[in-house]
Design brief:
With 469 residues, the chain is an alpha/beta fold. 35% of the residues lie in helices and 11% in strands. Strands 1, 2, 3, 4, 5, 6, 7 and 8 form an eight-stranded mixed beta sheet that branches. It starts with a helix and ends in a 9-residue tail after the last helix. Mean pLDDT is 94; it is low at 1-21. Bound molecules: 2-acetamido-2-deoxy-beta-D-glucopyranose (11 copies). One of its GO terms (molecular function) is acid phosphatase activity.
Length: 469
């Protein structure tokens, strides 16, 4: 939208003010909306969705000479409010800033300027952002709309696989925002399909039969590699705190509060369309923040965690089974919605972003930096597995947030794909040595030792109650 039409829109909205004044007393500054997209890749996957910033030059469309046979999706929920914990710490920080007795100077001056805090209502925490709960209706980054748009894009590219179908399943965890995303995605396909939503419980009692196999892994230790990742510098945080404390005498902002300002910036964009708080940071500080997030994710839930690949391997293995059974299975479209951490586990198993050696914490990896967490799992992340046939051969490849990401040593097929039997060997080598049930002591919480829901949903009908987690 150009700026002239935004101004007209603002004027029109001003006339319609009664509908919105209970939410926001002062209107968002429309001239700022859309100007901060360059920094989304630096905001730890908390800012709105964006496409993968690099490509190998290959289109995500199936190559002309090939015919699509099956598609799978692992998706993250859309743009959301902060979690309870982050929401509470941002609210505490806001109260501290609001309590500051002098006028602000420097980067925080905007707080004096009729600023309204973007988290007035804790009941929104953990929720997807929707037209009903956002602060300003001209915000273009609403989770609801992102999910609908994704549904339409999916249908445009893969709808041919649903041609003869009147019904098909969509699998989702029972987190409310994950389910809502799946539902908005499905609703956007129109009413010619009877979609059967399979709501899979996140509870550890589900064992291996879940989209959140992390939760059922009794031995998982997110901080197992703390001795490695905690070596990363925190100087960028002291720099921010010192700068703001110098500009504003007596503010006494701590390093951890400086760290919270990044989340403030990201979530305020989700809710309002932009955030003045983002202007607090220098480009370098954003780079340090982003690398710290990449590197800690690698050790928390990625290939750097002793059980990252094992936990994601359950879902990767099920995905490989679906590919192998593409001829027999009547359903050709396997859509699954879950959280970023679970998609990170799955990507760890798949290996397309595995650098193959530990990520350094002593410095920012420059030459060898394939693991960008926010590029992999921004809000609304979408990891597609495509299976297509070209003459007499079948091929597999991944499309992550619109970019084809080839498997390094298996990309000689059309569109940088990997021939299916070679892909199966590749997958076996990734999963070799992993044993979810014994490594995770899953038997302490569950007797479900394998993932069955893709195969038994019609008999079982999964219908777990939704919750805010
Ligand atoms: C606000 O300032 C008053 C007076 O300085 C202080 O007693 C109170 O604890 C402060 N509240 C917060 C939330 O910082
Ligand atoms: C749809 O049905 C037609 C005619 O029966 C068949 O040729 C085609 O392969 C089917 N398409 C899919 C995606 O199942
Ligand atoms: C939709 O599917 C469900 C379960 O698969 C079935 O019970 C229901 O009758 C179907 N509804 C329509 C209108 O086809
Ligand atoms: C996780 O690993 C860290 C580092 O080895 C260790 O200090 C911590 O006690 C472990 N936590 C659990 C619950 O085992
Ligand atoms: C600044 O905050 C620290 C704790 O965050 C506190 O110990 C210290 O007394 C505070 N200093 C001032 C001047 O308020
Ligand atoms: C992968 O799935 C197959 C079929 O369900 C199962 O036999 C095998 O044990 C699984 N392997 C892993 C590593 O999960
Ligand atoms: C597949 O086609 C190629 C040429 O297009 C041929 O050389 C090859 O023998 C065929 N393979 C099979 C298994 O039919
Ligand atoms: C699995 O690993 C073992 C031991 O490291 C090795 O001997 C075997 O060839 C591997 N199998 C596959 C399929 O990669
Ligand atoms: C789980 O399995 C382990 C070894 O396979 C066994 O030692 C343990 O007793 C089992 N625990 C339960 C609760 O079944
Ligand atoms: C498996 O565990 C569930 C509860 O976690 C229990 O209801 C069920 O009876 C168990 N099944 C078997 C075969 O032990
Ligand atoms: C977040 O807070 C809501 C409302 O208090 C509660 O229902 C939910 O369980 C909480 N979720 C988490 C993960 O703490």
């Amino acid at each position: 939208m150009n700026s002239v039409s935004l101004v007209l829109l603002a004027a029109a909205l001003a006339n319609a003010a009664p509908a919105t004044t209970d939410k926001q007393q002062t209107f968002a500054d429309v001239s700022k909306i859309g100007t901060q997209e360059d920094i989304f890749p630096y905001l730890a996957g908390s800012a709105p969705h964006f496409s993968y910033p690099l490509s190998y030059g290959v289109s995500k469309e199936v190559p002309d000479q090939c015919v699509l046979q099956q598609v799978q999706l692992f998706a993250r929920h859309g743009e959301r409010y902060p979690t309870n914990n982050t929401g509470a710490s941002l609210t505490t920080l806001y109260k501290k800033l609001n309590n500051y007795s002098s006028k602000f100077s420097g980067a925080l001056e905007f707080l004096d300027d009729d600023y309204e805090f973007f988290l007035p209502d804790p009941s929104n925490f953990e929720e997807l952002t929707t037209w009903n709960n956002i602060l300003d209706p001209i915000n273009p980054y609403v989770g609801e709309w992102d999910a609908q748009k994704h549904g339409r894009e999916f249908f445009q590219q893969y709808g041919e696989l649903l041609k003869n179908k009147t019904s098909f399943p969509i699998f989702t965890s029972n987190s409310k925002r994950v389910h809502d995303t799946a539902k908005f995605f499905g609703d956007a396909l129109g009413d010619k399909f009877n979609i059967s939503y399979q709501i899979i419980d996140e509870d550890p009692s589900m064992g291996a039969n879940s989209l959140t196999t992390l939760n059922s892994c009794a031995t998982y230790n997110k901080t197992a590699k703390a001795d490695v990742y905690s070596k990363f510098t925190t100087k960028y945080l002291s720099d921010i705190a010192n700068r703001l404390n110098t500009e504003n005498k007596g503010l006494n902002l701590s390093k951890s509060e400086a760290n919270s300002l990044f989340a403030w910036c990201a979530y305020e964009i989700n809710v309002k369309g932009y955030s003045n708080m983002c202007d607090v940071f220098t480009d370098e500080e954003l780079t340090y923040y982003a690398y710290n997030d990449d590197m800690t994710s690698y050790y928390y839930h990625g290939p750097g965690n002793p059980l990252g690949i094992t936990v994601g391997g359950v879902n990767f293995n099920a995905s490989v089974e679906l590919l192998k059974q593409h001829k027999e299975l009547d359903n050709k479209v396997w859509l699954s919605f879950t959280h970023d951490t679970n998609v990170v586990n799955i990507l760890a198993a798949i290996g397309i972003f595995d650098p193959g050696h530990p990520m350094p914490a002593e410095y920012i990896a420059i030459k060898d930096h394939i693991y960008h967490k926010s590029w992999m799992v921004p809000q609304g992340a979408r990891v597609y597995t495509q299976l297509y046939q070209c003459s007499n051969q079948t091929y597999v490849r991944y499309v992550v947030n619109d970019a084809v990401i080839p498997i390094e040593k298996c990309s000689s097929g059309p569109g940088l794909s990997c021939e299916l039997s070679k892909f199966v060997d590749y997958a076996e080598s990734r999963l070799n040595g992993t044993d979810y049930v014994s490594s995770c002591k899953t038997n302490t919480t569950s007797n479900q030792t394998s993932l069955t829901f893709y195969w038994d949903y019609q008999q079982k009908h999964y219908d777990a109650p939704l919750g805010l987690f």
